[in-house]
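Board notes (copied after class):
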Amino acid sequence: MSGRTEGGVKDLSGEGRRLLKTSFTCLFASLPTPAFAHASDRGHVLLLPTGYYLVGGAFAVAASFLVLALLPADLLDRFWRRRLPLFTFGDNARTTISLISFAGFAILVVAGFFGSRDPLSNPLPLVVWTLLLAGLTLLQGVFGDLWSWLNPWYGPWRLISRLTGRGDEACRRLPRWLGCWPAVVLFFAFAWFELIDPAPDDPARLALAAGFYLLLTFLAMLLFGYDRWSRSGEFLSIFFSMVARFAPVERDEHGRLGLCWPGAKLLAAEPLPPGGVAFLLLALSSVSFDGLSKTFFWLGLFGINPLEFPGRTAVIGSGTLGLVATFVLLAGVFLLAVWLGQRLAGGNQPLAQAAGLLVWSIVPIALAYHVAHYLTALLVDGQYAAASLSDPFALGWNLFGTADMQVEAGIVAGASSAWWLWNIQAGAIIAGHVLAVLVAHGFAWRLHPRPAGAALSQLPLTLLMIAYTVFGLWLLATPTVG
């Protein structure tokens, strides 16, 4: 406060301000207010005691394991193999759609440099962090690999390949040992930029990063081939293809579409190499750390008062440490659970093969965390994205008739909305872990044909999933900053 008085109230000294602030804090803390749950940096009222959700989620996963241990393998196999054929869908428009996507992405990068400085008015941050990261990931989990059509590199690469007469076979080969470790490194850089960088929403800063990645990826595809780099270095293609394996929509090599059970395509997957295992675990751990890093508990570990959060610049070191530590801890616990399961079942498969198969069961969990974490951001920021896309350069345009739309933030506010949102988020986490148990049990039968061995091999992994269920629901229920 300044030295002036207003309304007859005298200026307070520094000690007086602290005393007044403490008094109000104690007053509000003493009121019978409900707890708040966390989702995408916004707080919502938690209407029921947290313990009921934690116990219920853990019970659901534990019960699913007990049921699966009693079900015969052939019954589960018939369950996963059921398909409903639909129709044939060709690749004729794929190049055209990708070229349109490339042009749109280039316009967004230019808008990042020359459009509005407001992250809620510039379309680049809203498209990248909301429509691409949050929205398209969910669509991939429902409809399959849409990214293979929408990615901005396939069309330009195919066009240049036709003009030059050089296909993938004429490109350099990547060393076999490299696997998809380049994608792991790039995905970590992406996660660091999103979660740790001081200003990932700044349009110009994001435009520089996005433009650099667009060019780097295209040059790598020209050098090593589109298919090779998409499988080894382009982390978005790898991430989206992994998520698409959960989708109940599948498309075979002849273009025929069909319906299957969610997660059924995961059981047809081959074991992932070590780089692929690391990639999937990094995808889950980065989302988990995003929620953990905003909790009062995490900030308290570094002596930061969450009510006076100093900003992202002050927590770059602790954030980087936490991002790495979360990944290392999850990877260590996962490998330990797989190793213990192999020992209990008496299996002789190499740990790398068992881990490469069972890590696919992480996909339903990662997708469930994604739903829980980004749901409210998608509902609110998706509206801002629709408005900004009509006027990408802040010139008063209204290209799609949405520039003047009224953003309804109330869709995530109020007791009724909070109840539905929280239960959707909690339900997604529980359902994701139950499906993960189903998928893991299917892989257990591939590794251990004996019923007793398959059940025993899953015990440590199921305990890990129960613990992660409780952790995820705690993240939804604990107070956070932001």
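Comment from the instructor: The first strand starts at residue 36 and ends at 39. The beta strands are 36-39, 42-45, 83-88, 249-251, 256-260.
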